[in-house]
Amino acid sequence: MATNQAAFAFYMQHQRVVYYALSRLGVRPQTPDYQDLRQEGMLLYLAYYQQYEEPLNQPVAVQKFNRLAGKIVYLGLLQHRLKWQRRQALEQTAGKQWHQAAAMTADRQESSLSGLLMAETFTALAARLTPGERTILDLRYGEQLSNREIALRLNMSPRRVSAVRRQIAVKYLAWQAEP
Predict the structure, then answer these.
(1) pLDDT tens-digit series, residues 93-118
(2) CA 81 from centre of chain
(3) Residues 76/34, Cβ–Cβ less than 8 Å
(4) CA distance 46 to 5
(5) What's the DSSP call for residue 14?
(6) Which has more confidence, 97 or 140?
(7) Which of 29, 104, 111, 133 is the most interior residue, by most CB within 10 Å?
(8) CA distance 40 to 75
(9) Contact predicate 2/51, CB 8 Å
(10) In terms of DSSP H, where are the helices of 2-111?
């Protein structure tokens, strides 16, 4: 088993393997999640290096390792992107339901009773959320900010904001499914 320093030094010499896997996936430096995927690829490469048992003292052995590591990194990043796409689809479904609820609220503003019921619905959902989730929910749907704008305001990554929004969507859908 290799040390962390040795693994990182080896990665620095052969980081092109990760860049090649990213290019095979069609991920370009302009892509918003490029840095996250590059880092994920690096972690996959390092993990594989630390598990690899054959010595890497010959150029042929290094070439063989990099071919295998490239496949591992590519498949890991592909799996990561597929999970992300499934989560985005779930988030969009929940987002559409939120927008429909907001549209219904706007249409029914004349009726104070229906406005009161909608407010109670959002209050009931907010009671199920953590304070951080409530803040992000308010910024997204109250102030209509994007994930990037929320991330800047709360000093966190857009990826973390997206993860919290997915948590909110899951809680919302679970709450809606309750009898």
Answers:
(1) 766 666 666 666 555 544 454 555 55
(2) 9
(3) no
(4) 10
(5) S
(6) 140
(7) 133
(8) 12
(9) no
(10) 4-13, 16-24, 34-51, 59-107
